[in-house]
Write a structure and sequence with these properties.
single chain; 241 residues; alpha/beta; globular
């Protein structure tokens, strides 16, 4: 695992964020190419602070479905990124199968700390500039950072054509405001979920994996086959802005 660089900044939540300029730029920027003969690439980012242990275990148990959902469209590479404790934020190597990712996730335990969404987004920007990145999944339940700073990074990622799909556990209104803004700025989607209902999270994560591997076309095909989760993501993505 690689420790991600930190950046000193305010942790206070600001008031309203002006995102119109970012959205205008995102809409005028071509999306990144995905699919074709290349394997899809998905950054799988999780909040691993203390309150997240049950959701971490659920995510670890269902991540195999992301790989299997893309078998017929070229396959998927997944990079695990997580934060926890006192400023710890790490990124693993790209994994090409569920067993390797499962093994990595099994070694991680959740530890009390503050959220580090900004560092996750900055790492996604670095990855997107270095190689093709189809999408980012972020799973969390809280937000304790400067929303303006985080939205700035989300806007930069949006300009690179990489959507962020934010999955929110619970009902924290501050987290919802931030997660919806991140999704909107990047052309992704905000998806609430309940850890007691893992089936829905499994369906949605599989749909995101299909998008990361094959783009909108693959997601539309999945919808035509009766996949409700694919239809929901398409609707949410097209409703951004």
């Amino acid at each position: 695992m690689v420790k991600l660089p930190n950046k000193q900044g305010s942790t206070n939540l600001s008031s309203d964020t002006d995102v119109d300029a970012f959205l205008a730029k995102v809409k005028s920027t071509p999306t990144a190419a995905v699919g074709g003969n290349k394997r899809g690439r998905l950054m799988f980012a999780l909040d691993a602070t203390a309150s997240r242990q049950p959701s971490w275990d659920v995510a670890a148990s269902i991540q195999a479905d992301m790989f299997s959902a893309t078998d017929t469209i070229g396959g998927l590479d997944v990079k695990l990124v997580f934060f926890r404790g006192l400023g710890e934020c790490k990124a693993g190597a790209w994994r090409q199968n569920a067993a390797d990712l499962q093994q990595m996730m099994a070694k991680v335990y959740c530890e009390a700390g503050r959220t580090q969404v900004e560092r996750v987004l900055r790492h996604a920007i670095k990855e997107a500039k270095a190689t093709r990145l189809g999408a980012v999944v972020y799973i969390g339940d809280a937000f304790e950072e400067n929303i303006d700073t985080v939205c700035h990074e989300a806007g930069r990622l949006g300009l690179l054509g990489v959507p962020v799909f934010t999955f929110q556990e619970g009902y924290d209104p501050i987290a919802r405001k931030a997660f919806e803004a991140i999704a909107r700025l990047t052309g992704g989607a905000w998806c609430p979920f309940d850890v007691s209902s893992p089936a829905r999270l499994r369906e949605l994560l599989s749909a995101v994996a299909v998008y990361a591997a094959g783009g909108i076309t693959a997601l539309e095909h999945r919808q035509k086959q009766g996949d409700e989760a694919a239809g929901q993501l398409l609707s949410d993505m097209r409703g951004q802005g």
